[in-house]
Every structure is written in C-alpha cells, then in structure tokens.
Amino acid sequence: MKTPRRFGLLVLALTVAAPLAARAQEINLSNLDDGPTNRVQVRTGAEYGFVAGVGYARTLALPGLDRPVLVTGDLTAPWAHVDASDYRLRLGALMPIAGAGRWRIAGTLAPTLRHTKNDVAVMTGLGADLGVVGGYYARHWFAAGEVGYDWIGTTHIANSDLYRRFVYANARDGWYGEGASGNIRAGIQAGATFGRYDLALRAGALRDAAGEAPLLPFYATLGLSTRF
Questions:
Q1: How far, in Å, are 12, 21, 48, 95, 171 from residue 71 at the CA level?
Q2: What predicted TM-score, i.e. pTM, was given to this entire model?
Q3: Sequence spans of domains, the chain
Q4: Least confident of 19-28, 45-54, 137-146, 196-205
C-alpha cells in the first residue's frame, strides 16, 4: 500500500477513534470578569462518538490587556468502551474580542493532543482548535452561535506487528504530515446560570475540510460547570 494512501486511512481511523471535542468553550461571557476565577466542568454527549470529559479553567488578567483571558484545559474520552489509550487533551485560551451591551463575541485557540491504539497502530495526533463564539449574554442565561476548525497537523504512527505481518511488512514508524486534515463545525449554544453553576447545551453540524460529512455528522453535548 502506498504511503500517502495508507496515511490517509490512518488519519481517518484516528479521526473516528479519538474523541474530537469540536467546540468553543461554552460559558456565559457576561460573568467572565466576575469572581470567582476558577471553573471546573464536566461534559457528556455525542462528538464523533459518545464521550465524556472533565475540564478546568481560570480567568486571568494579563498585563497590557484590558479584558480577561480564560485559560482552559480539558481531557475527553469515549465512555462506550473505557480505554486509557483513547483520549484527547487540550490546553487553550478564550478571550473576548468585541461587545456591545449584552452582545458579545469571543475567540478561542487550543493546541490539541490526540492518542489512540488499535490493531493497526498506535497513533498520536497533534493539532489545534480555532473557534469563534458570539451571541446574547444576559446575567442568568445566554444564547449564541459558534463556528470553528479542528485542525490535525501531524500524526505519529507506530505500526503494529499484526499490520506488518498481514498488510505491509515494510511499514515505517514516524511522523506524517502530508494530507493534514481537519473538521469544520457550526452550531448553537444555550445556557443558564444558577448562582455559581452554569448549565450549557451545544448542538451543531460537522464537515471535514472537503465538505464531506463524517460518520456522525452532528454533535450535541451537555455540560455543567461551577465557579469557585
């Protein structure tokens, strides 16, 4: 099997097997600059499969900026089959871009690590998620739209003995960057705030960079967070 074709198949396998959290940070931007500054979130739903995740975020006031920055980190994994080798880890940031009254827009950037293991290979993907979210943010509820691009820049492939034995004996391990791909999302967010608790629902459509629909062409998640 030729390397470009094989790489494309393996990236597809990584995309399907690893949980891609195709999202912007779903928070009520109206209380972003209010205390307390720490947030913990749990989330579940459908994102290229049935997944669950946990995350932590902290609001920072950086020198030279007149607006707060939310620094985030989250870990997501499928719950249909518990496997410690199948996960997605992101570290990122959300920053308000513009606003007028209760109408707000924010941008997100999050470097991303994905890892999965199957009978074909052990695959580790590196990339980044870029997004924009904006809408109406009242003190106790919000409704917004989101768009974003989840980019897979390079993937390290460690081929299994099974693959070498039955498919391609001369398969080479290493980092592959040709044919780097990604997924585009567009959807909505809605949430309610109860004291220090936030409940948020997201839903939308997914397409790859070529405009084709993945196996599960939509996402829908429910998240609960608390500030302290």
A1: 30, 17, 25, 9, 40
A2: 0.84
A3: 3-227
A4: 19-28
Q: CATH for 3-227?
A: 2.40.128
Could you read off the pLDDT of 121-148 as tens digits, one per residue?
999 999 999 999 999 999 999 999 999 9
What value, to the nearest 5°, has the Cα angle with vertex 79 and ends 78 and 85? 50
What are the tokens at 129? 């998620």
Q: What pLDDT score does 179 carry? A: 59
How many Cβ atoms sit within 10 Å of the Cβ of residue 159?
Answer: 20
Q: What DSSP line would sit under 54-66, residue for residue?
A: EEEEEEE--TT-S
Cβ atoms 197, 225 nearer than 8 A: yes
The residue among 226, 225, 216 whose CA lies nearest residue 51 is 216
CA distance 61 to 223: 25
DSSP H or E stretch at residue 173? none
What percent of the residues of the chain are helix, what percent strand, and what percent coil, each to the nearest 5?
10, 60, 30
